[in-house]
Structures
1.
Amino acid sequence: MAAAALLRAGLGGGRGARTALLTRSLLLLRRRPGVLPALASAAPIRGSHGQQGHGGSKAASLHWTSERAVSVLLLGLLPAAYLCPGPAVDYSLAAALTLHGHWGLGQVITDYVHGETPIKVANTGLKRSLPSPSKEQTTLHTLQCISPLLKTVEETPQPIPAKVKGHIPEWINGNLLRNGPGRFEFGEEKYNHWFDGMALLHQFQLRNGTVTYRSKFLQSNSYLTNRQHNRIVVSEFGTLAMPDPCKSVFERFMSRFDTPKPSDNASVSYVVYKGDYYVSSENTFMYKVDPETLETKEKVDWSKFIAVNGATAHPHYASDGTTYNMGNSYGKHGTRYNIIEIPPQKSNCSDTLEGAKVLCSIAPMDKMKPSYYHSFGMSENYIIFIEQPIKLNLMRIITSKFRGKPISEGINWEPQHSTRFHVVNKHTGEVLPGQWYSKPFATFHQINAFEDHGCVVLDLCCQDDGKTLATYKLQNMRRSGVDLYQVYNSVARTFPRRFVLPLNMSSDAPVGKNLNPLPYTLAKAVKDVDGKVWCTHENLHPEGFENFGGLEFPQINYSQYSGKKYRYFYGCGFRHFIGDSLMKVDVETKNFKIWQEEGSYPSEPVFVPVPNAMAEDNGVILSVVISPDENRSAFLLVLDAETFKELGRAEVPVEMPYGFHGIFRSH
């Protein structure tokens, strides 16, 4: 997924919620001798007061119940609970607050009572209402071994019917298409990195309330060659292919000087160009696939159409059908970041990328160490590219095979460099002259971008440490117990943040003052004496959000709100190496809702709008949920996007690895 372009290039409001919290409390304490009798005699407490959870609000009365008294008692007992945790129970405070598992279907964070008015427990007062656990408490003894979700599986080429529980709305007609690794070894040779696995294409077909599932391996040259030789012949992001053991010692040594074969393992995402569906990674190759049968069709090489050495797996789509993407080039003029424009219409039935053009090229701050990027932002009129201090050391990458190293060893986090924002007029290709900077951060996925009062508002998922890529080695992710906890705890959490880039700055713009004119955001943009504008983010989440592992794989109602001012986004919570919850975040109030089920790991959420919907969140969320428990089936989860409550699920008795990205194709 991250290959360089050179090679791969707690307080319930309703009666049911209170009962659930009490049930959870009892379950958490069931292994503590002498506690349950005391709880059984707990009496109601009346007349206590507290603060309303919303930031900036006034004090308000909260009515205590016996269940709330139990919850407070539970908090007092948590330190003791960590001294002798049982293997079957999750004792983290975050788990208690999210009320997940132990009963039926997945749970949503419910309401607590502010006077007579329900307020979401997941609002900005979360941390003010209850103490937050430390990062160690949140993860210690709670990380389940997920090794079964990172192993080779068989494909399911013929569609099989799913067992529907609950209700799948009949208006959902189409295919959920997903991509990700599905094979992690050939013969005795194993891949080292999660991103190296061979692409397995998944399809959930929804039609009139029924669901079928199928999957097929992408028939890439890398996959077919490796399978033919029953060993790893083509190098991947984190795995260097070893020389042919049948060759002589001299031939094997000399093979280090051979030009490496670029992988065409397109395992990251589905993308659409001119109405055709492709699977893509970040190198120069894509594969056209049939979205109905998952058959591998034509192989397409970006470099045959424009002077780039690859493109991202996250293009943006304009309302007129034009597609925009970014890709690097390495030529006589040095390294360049390139904005790519692909026209919406085919010139003939065999057309692929004909008519694609480079809209503009941007020189990196360091030509021998360009930045790695996985995505970019787009508003109505602008492309926003973030040059971050995750650096591609070109010399190390070029010499990686000679040195016996995979290309992943040439990607480094260099926080001595600042992060820079580049803004490009997507209609003219003009790079705006402004210099927008921020303290160093890493980002892989953008949420949305829009324009307001001469500013670009950019929302994205950020980390303060960009060494994450190196951590996602399979040997790390397959650990268990304390070893798994230690590795996971070394990974920087990802949080949603907002930046504001003022575009129309005159030379006499005041120095040292905040140039952000927007009253609804706390993000700052301050001009320095050298003309640079230093941007400080606003968090798009409440206090205490870190207890849910942060958020990644963000999605919005893209067809209606991409490039526009919006209110909601969706993503995965990451209290593990992979997503363990689904979240809906309100960027205006910073309230959020969560779906979570113990021992279940949901994929990136995909928003599907109701036909002719008027409200932004009028639709459903689709997510594929898997479990390392061999006795539990994988299932397609359908949530009401507004309430975030489960409508139904479609179970299939098939093993699936955890994947990356997907797309919904309506019929």
2.
Amino acid sequence: MNLLTLLLTALSLLPTPSYTQESSSSSSSSSSSDEDTSSTSSFTVTAYRSNSPINNLALTIFSGRFYLGGRTSSYCPPGVASEGECPPGNETIIIGDNGLSVSVPGGQQIYILSTGALSFTAPHSSYMPPGSSTGPFSYTPGTPYGSWNYTGSPGGFIACPVKGGAGGGSSSSSVPGGSSSTPKPSSTPTPSKHSGTPSSSYVSPSVSPSATPGAGGGRWIVYVNWKNATVPGGNVNECLGFGARAWGKNASVGAWEYI
């Protein structure tokens, strides 16, 4: 009996193990931080050049090119539309340094044509014409706005006036969520050794230049700031340099695909 008493006494003197559990508030805070980081990587752009016709104009995509002002051209497949799953598609949203905020598998990437004009890859394809480059671009978040910039030499963007026949354009889209006319399919271009290879044999909507530049209402087409850029009218001195203000967007995606 004395032995049992001694054993019980010895056991009572052993240290009790303790466990530390991460509080739900800490976990929630971490999750919230991740979401904030994700949301601030998407943004829209407006031009800044005081006392000029381009000041505060929105950066828009129309028919394979970037403009200041006008409307954004996007497309959403009828099957997606019938499920009510089309993103708004009415504004141009960039994600990261040079991606487009889209749902289409494979995404879409911004690049620079050999002329200096900004363009982007077609849906379902990584093809870029010979002489194209993917930047470098840089996005810096900020409050109430950050900045987006071309950081190659000498850096920055220019907006060049569209020459001739620029009209307001009209939308004939019958697809909910899209803000463009229904795209016409085009053949997948033949890749060169200097460019990406189309990811599939899918016949993509065309992202070739509009037959009427500025038909989406944008009167200023966007180029990187190259002195030898091939611009409308041929005179780069008619173009206006501008700062690109980046406005953070708390949105999942901007469009199913841009065209």
3.
Amino acid sequence: MLDSKPVISQVQELQLILHDIHAEGMTLSESFQVAAIIEKLPPAWKEFKNYLKHKRKEMNVEELIVRLRNEEDNRNSERRFFTPNVAKANVVEHGDKYNAKRKPRPSGKDSKLGAKKGTFKKKFVGKCYNCDGMGHKASDCKKPKRAREANTVDDISHDVSNINLCAVVFEVNLIGSNPREWWIDTGATRHVCSDKEMFATLQESENGEKLYMGNSATSEIKGQGKVVLKMTSGKELTLNNVLYVPDIRKNLMFGSLLNKHGFRIVFESDKVVVSKNGMYVGRGYVCDACLS
């Protein structure tokens, strides 16, 4: 999502996409839809996104939209309050000290103090994401930062492997690729590999489970296992629960899942850099509008 557009309108567009997926015969659980919407919130909503991820009570889509609408209304109200005209009130204009005439200083009863002109800070009326208290923001909270809690939306996203829909991959079968290369796909919901030799462990299956692509095509899943990748730094990156799909033409790395497990993925100057806890892991480059 973009900061330049209203969040609610972008959520409605995302709901239309989810509706189209449902119309194609694919089932998306309520928890998956909630996690997907939260994950797509724009950068300016980062603090609110973390608050939603830490909520213990599970929400449905309607409850999430109500919360997003209330938050957006509060943000719009604060934005309207702090206007440029109000900000000018604290600017003092100095005239020519030699030519300007001084006004006589009032005395006696006429010297009553009036209200000073200027801005005043509106008290925050929302909820703290850190302590759940009212009247202050998490950045101003005096209580210790709480640790990540169990049963959060992160756990729902991590358990996406239990959903019947295995992956949503856009136009992945249209372009040929090196079977040893891996591509970071932020739209996929699982790691996918087409090269059987790359699996360190593989549990083959013939249950007819299908992988659905964004172009309405399907490919059969032949198994699931673990892949160990040798990164440019010399370190090894282990991908668990990787789907073995021989028909797919690109090996896909689920970027959002790496991010949820503490990896930092930075896209800059036609390249992508992967690190964890400040330690360099590896990098890739943009190729044909994709990241390899």
4.
Amino acid sequence: MAEKIGLQTLIDRSIRNMGAGINSVVKESAIEMIKQAYKEGIYVQITSGYRSFAEQNKLYAQGRTAPGKIVTNAKGGQSNHNYGLAIDYVLLSEDGKKALWTVNEKWRRVAQIGKSLGFSWGGDWKSFKDYPHLEMMGGLTLSQLQAGKRPVLVSLLSNKVSAKPIKTSPIKSSPSKSTSKPKTNTSKKTYNLPSGILKVTKPLTKGAGVKAVQEALSALFFYPEKGAKNHGVDGYYGLKTADAVKRFQLMNGLTADGIYGPKTKKAIEKSLK
């Protein structure tokens, strides 16, 4: 019988693959994800983390001007990996010798663990699903990263603030480098969560109560629509808000029906403390 791969081996390999330019909170959270999955008999290894612009361009050339199959549509500066904010993972066989790429319950369980630690998962994307991909954008868009802005991430494990990510030049030229720092809240925001039931109706339920739920979920990284205007916080309880509620419920041991009620309200309030 083959010997089971050790936890430290998975961690060591993953640290090497994430690279020196990975954000410190992303790194810490990825290692914790590996540890939690290992306890459940799931063997996870990070295959990719920080990529320089040159490395990204080399990857982009594959299948185009270089041998191999096309593996990315992103040139240098067009991937969250280039800013140290994203990782890719794969499951391994028990002995650690075989990569298992089938997206099954175990794969999705790892994604759940990752999301509980603050990651967003590429498998939740609507247009192009990227199942190995996890990222922490800190509320910024790719365009903002390209313009030179950097997020300040806060670890859900240690409450530590991330060290400065690797420095990169803005994609678009600017007359001078900005000296302003990303805004962060030094005190916890309170949300006036409504009582009662909220669910998808015709016409859609709207109002301050719905918006409070959306804002509270967004503060916990369960965005109604990440990357859209205000990440989908619009005061309307539509399908995307119901999906955010469902994802939160799934991560917190509740019935994942997308309906906001007393139990979900209590769980959100507890998570915000």
